[in-house]
């Protein structure tokens, strides 16, 4: 286990600092899936919440023919589509985006939106960057 943790730490340092450590590890490949300073509708993220950082990662499974309730997020987060398809809708404008397996979405902060599935369900991995005591979403 120690060897794996050390290898992950070296990779994280290489990615963060650009030291080239990943290049020194044979077989290691790095693919940036997303980098964004704005949510999918183009609205910039303005700040992280104050307080002690709290990272949360959820695996969310939504069955076919489902609609999540309209909700907002008080914190930046990003969703990765592990499998299936999901249409995200912005309540204010009706703007939509279709997500498929392998897509990454920078989610909205402070804007009402929801996810809707069609004939396929979806499995998401969602990464939240918040602070202790803040909810991940609100209705």
UniProtKB/TrEMBL annotation:
Full protein name: Cupin type-2 domain-containing protein
SUPFAM superfamilies found in the cross-reference section: RmlC-like cupins
UniProt signal peptide: 1-22
Keywords: Signal
Keyword match Signal: yes
Coiled-coil features, chain-numbered ranges: none
One Pfam family this sequence matches: Cupin_2
Residues spanning the membrane: none
Domain Cupin type-2: residue ranges: 60-126
Lineage: Bacteria, Pseudomonadati, Pseudomonadota, Betaproteobacteria, Burkholderiales
């Amino acid at each position: 286990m120690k060897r794996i943790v050390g290898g992950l730490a070296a990779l994280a340092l290489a990615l963060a600092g650009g030291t080239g450590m990943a290049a020194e590890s044979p077989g290691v490949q790095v693919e940036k899936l997303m980098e964004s300073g704005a949510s999918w509708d183009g609205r910039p993220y303005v700040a992280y919440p104050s307080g002690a950082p709290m990272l949360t990662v959820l695996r969310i499974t939504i069955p076919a023919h489902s609609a999540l309730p309209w909700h907002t997020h008080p914190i930046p987060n990003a969703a990765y589509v592990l499998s299936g398809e999901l249409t995200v809708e912005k309540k204010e404008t009706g703007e939509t985006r279709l997500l498929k397996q392998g897509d990454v979405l920078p989610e909205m902060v402070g804007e009402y939106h929801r996810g809707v599935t069609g004939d396929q369900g979806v499995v998401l991995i969602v990464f939240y960057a918040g602070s202790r005591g803040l909810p991940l979403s609100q209705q």
